[in-house]
Amino acid sequence: MRVIFHGAAGEVTGSCHEVHAAGLRLLLDCGLIQGSRADEARNRDDFGFDVAAIDAVVLSHAHIDHCGRLPLLVKRGFRGPIWTQRATADLLKVMLEDSAKLAMADAERAERRLKEGRGSRDDEDEREPLYTLDDVARTLKHVRALDYDAPTVIAPGLTLTLRDAGHILGSASVELVERTTAGNGTDPSDAVTRGDASRGGVLVFSGDLGPKGTPILRDPAPVPRADLVLLESTYGGRLHREREATVAELGRVFRDAWESRGCVVIPAFAVGRTQELLYAFAQHADDWGLHRWRVFLDSPMAAKVLGVYERHVGLFDDEARRVWAGNPHPLRLPNLHLAESTEDSMAINRIESGAIIIAGSGMANGGRVRHHLRHRLPFERNHVLFVGYQAAGTLGRRLVDGAAYVRILGHEVPVHAQRHTVGGLSAHADQAGLLDWYAQIDGAPPVVLVHGEDDAREPMARELRRRFDADVELARPGDERDVGA
Length: 485
Ligand code: ZN
Prior knowledge:
By secondary structure, the chain is of the alpha/beta class. The chain is about 35% helix and about 20% strand. Zinc ion binds near residues 61, 63, 167 and 208.
């Protein structure tokens, strides 16, 4: 078995790794590159492999930086199955349709600028949408949904098992077991389910791992064995604050914001973070004085995702299942308003104070949150609350880094609003969590670090070497690595 690294090798977005196993070519994830306009332009480039030669995709979870180029893959000739967890299959539809709509809107804007004679080279490239809703519909037909912990023979000699990664609903770590011989039976599944000793190798891809104790979700499941581990390292260089400290800090932000008579804008991923926040809102509504606020979820996509969460209660942890048993809508506070239309969204701008606005995108480089930031950033009474990772090159990162001015939708916007970064709500395990997950795998197998910037991967590599004497590499685009060699 062999792995070739294409995306999220030295950066956080654009997850995509190619695997050659059992005579097949697979992709682990096929994610969108996110960041500056120049970064995002790379989504239109060649994939770096022959698309028609790819036999199948295994998708770890529905975040767009893991699944967002799938429709482009299909548009360029991919015809194989896309294996993924059942809840991810449901979320995928919501995510990709939204992504296609954004791509189509971008293309229309580029076309308009060109027609008005104020277009640029970039606009020339962008007048054709990256993909459309038709491409998404074709992509969804390729999806094959699996349950967690159900070993499945996806080709003769190759077994796939998905394990709960505890990151967002449906998120999975991927275990691929290859056998070098066909075994003694004619049915390949028979040898594989017996754990035949003639296996050729076990490749484990962590996917994105959640921290232990994430509300709603179960903790990441252990993976028993591996000959090579591809390990995410988004937060490989830091330790999160204790969850209680985070809860106290959120309470302080809401109290301060109430006293300054402002509004709070929270850029949040529509999948995962938004649901976790709403769950925290419901649990701490009294402590945080939330009843006096108007809470807006300004993301039709996040609202759809609420529905998907409500359909998969069986995947929740014990506590969340108890909460759901007693209340059919624990994510929906009585003062929660869902802004569906653009008019609903614009109406929020008229509220001077007392509104908490949760809107996408999570890194503020797209979506409705940009309009809210444009409106709210110039005033000191307002607060912006960052509750997730802000990748290099995004508007969110510039704000977190303290920019005095930012450019939003063609406007130069002064930044006077107060900014807060609350790390403890992360959907990603911190260094200790990643090390704990790795420690559960038998025999300290070699590791390739993916999905992290170098300032996160380097400390992670040092810790893996120091504590486990592990063989650790940092993946670079184009690197190749044999499994079990
Ligand atoms: Zn993710």
